[in-house]
Amino acid sequence: MTSPIAHFNGRLVPLDDIRISPLDRGFLFGDGVYEVVPAYGGKLLRAREHFARLQRSMDEIALANPMTIDGWVDAVNALLAHHPGDQAVYIQVTRGVPPKRDHVIPQGLAPTVFMMASPMTNPSKEMVDKGVACVSASDFRWHKCHIKSVSLLGNVLARQISADAGATETVLFRDGYLTEAAASNVFVVKGGTVYAAPQDNHILLGITYELLAELARSGELKFEVRPVAETLVRAADEIWLSSSTKEVLAVTTLDGKPVGAGVPGPVFKRMHALFQAYKAKLA
Questions:
Q1: Fewest CB within a 10 Å sphere: which of 12, 115, 138, 242?
Q2: Buried b vs exposed e over 81-100: b needs ≥16 C-beta within 10 Å?
Q3: In the chain, pLDDT over 90 holds for what percent of residues?
Q4: Which residues are catalytic?
Q5: Residues 31-40: pLDDT tens digits?
Q6: What's the whole-number mean pLDDT along residues 141-160?
């Protein structure tokens, strides 16, 4: 089988041919950031917003951006020329390869840039129509979750909780309030209003989160950003997950108990329709 084409430090090469030094700080320390940009039929979904977020993550860890936003878009489009159809483009930038292992951040390193494209499977009709099951856990991750860091062990362990339970996601609470899920943002509907947790340092600044907020307002849905108490989540009429690859999904059970009526609710159905209409405009 032919190895898929990937991007590595400015070159398009077969994925199997890429070699990364064991001294790379991304390997040794998780010293790097990443992005995932969805592409529908070769059309990028909010690419500039994704790369603006990449810049913010780099700024947070004092990592120089090796490209402009236009440069990133051009590089991703060049990669997508080898990957037709719906794709999820993974982009990772690490601080690079120092001469020795040292916790102190070295100066003057050339960043390591890696990109690959993987076929994106949209949520199935069954998932959309019936919703998904989730479990909950205490948010034991660090206090800089707004950085899209490659140091994802906390998220991995949180996601494994739901995998072990046969569920789709792990909804996280910190000090009695909703943060997010292991690999998704979370929205709650109560009394017809959509509630979202503030985009502070305890959640990832989701591009799909921002898109849903825009769609809610344009679709005349009541939308409010505020601290969301765990008690509100557990009494919610609807709960949704959102991410670049999940789009928007209804949660119909949480910790084995039905959410609302136990089926995707009317506000979710309206939001899902708005999202699909937005996607159609990309074509």
A1: 138
A2: eebeebbbbebbbbbbbbee
A3: 97
A4: 148
A5: 999 999 999 9
A6: 97
187 contacts 239 by C-beta, under 8 angstroms: yes
- Lowest mean pLDDT, pick from 118-122, 137-141, 169-173: 118-122
Q: Please, what is the average pLDDT of the chain?
A: 97
